[in-house]
């Protein structure tokens, strides 16, 4: 899926979110300027850009869907876009932490994938700006985009961090997809799984590790087992 034949038209959109992932994009500095040499931003409220266009080569959307108006906006963007990227945990999985702590609203949040076809996902709360840059470059250049299979726990080992599980803390690093450079554990904060489950997540093993260390087992870990089973089935169906 190459967009390099002409300078691709790109739109950056926000639904319900804190816009922290957009801030991460702005923090790219010189890399952002290099990216702008390859693409043309034609629609972005945050950047103050609004040009006339009939279609988008690439739509980048942050935030979850919380209203009928946002649902209609998302469907319209999808219908006018060749490629769509879900940006950040709100867009990828309708971040429940965001919903509970930031919005404080009873309205049900939905991820982009629950409503429209999503071509690529960039997880994280917030995203890793370098991962965003690399993935967008790969898409624009028509390269095969391969998600990292390393876990946050593996990244902690690479950085020689002390294991938070051994300190009796509830950390989801062993089952969470890496790519954030173990940002939270490296700063003494347990991983809460914002990047989603790793492909080979062994939730039963993590529960056993909690029990062996006397760490209370969160009820949501059983639900994660079900979610992983559904995702594994979806992946198998795509590959058949």
By CATH, the architecture of the largest domain is named 3-Layer(aba) Sandwich
Provide mean pLDDT, rounded. 86
CATH topology of the largest domain: Rossmann fold
> How many β strands by DSSP?
6
Q: Write out the strand line-up for the largest beta sheet, numbering strands in chain order.
A: 3-2-1-4-5-6
Number of structural domains:
2
Question: Helix-strand pattern, N to C?
Answer: EHHEEEHEHHEHHHHH
CA gyration radius, whole angstroms = 19 Å
The CATH homologous superfamily of the largest domain is called NADH:ubiquinone oxidoreductase-like, 20kDa subunit
Helix proportion? 25-40%
Shape: globular
Task: Give a quick set of tags describing it.
single chain, six-stranded mixed β-sheet, 240 residues, 6 strands, 2 domains, alpha/beta, Rossmann fold
Describe the structure.
By secondary structure, the protein is of the alpha/beta class. It folds into 2 domains: 9-140, NADH:ubiquinone oxidoreductase-like, 20kDa subunit (Rossmann fold); 152-233, no CATH class. It contains 10 helices and 6 strands, in the order βααβββαβααβααααα. The protein has a 6-stranded mixed β-sheet. The longest helix is centred in the last third of the chain and has 20 residues, at 220-239. The radius of gyration is 19 Å and the shape is globular. The protein starts with 8 loop residues before the first strand and ends with a helix.
């Amino acid at each position: 899926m190459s967009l390099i034949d002409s300078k691709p038209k790109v739109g950056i959109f926000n639904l319900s979110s804190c816009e922290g992932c957009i801030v991460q994009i702005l923090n790219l500095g010189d890399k952002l300027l290099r990216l702008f040499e390859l693409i043309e931003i034609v629609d972005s409220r945050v950047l103050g850009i609004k040009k006339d266009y009939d279609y988008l080569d690439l739509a980048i959307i942050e935030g979850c869907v919380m209203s009928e108006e946002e649902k209609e906006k998302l469907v319209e963007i999808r219908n006018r876009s060749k490629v769509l990227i879900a940006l950040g945990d709100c867009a990828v999985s309708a971040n429940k932490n965001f919903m509970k702590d930031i919005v404080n609203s009873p309205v049900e949040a939905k991820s982009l994938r629950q409503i429209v076809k999503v071509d690529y996902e960039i997880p994280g709360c917030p995203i890793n700006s370098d991962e965003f840059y690399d993935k967008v470059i790969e898409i624009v250049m028509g390269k095969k985009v391969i998600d990292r299979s390393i876990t946050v726990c593996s990244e902690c080992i690479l950085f020689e961090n002390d294991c938070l599980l051994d300190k009796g803390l509830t950390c989801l690093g062993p089952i969470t997809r890496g790519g954030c450079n173990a940002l939270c554990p490296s700063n003494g904060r347990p991983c809460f799984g914002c990047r989603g489950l790793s492909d080979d997540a062994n939730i039963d093993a993590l529960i056993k590790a909690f029990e062996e260390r006397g760490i209370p087992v969160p009820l949501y870990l059983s639900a994660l087992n079900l979610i992983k089973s559904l995702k594994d089935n979806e992946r198998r169906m795509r590959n058949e």
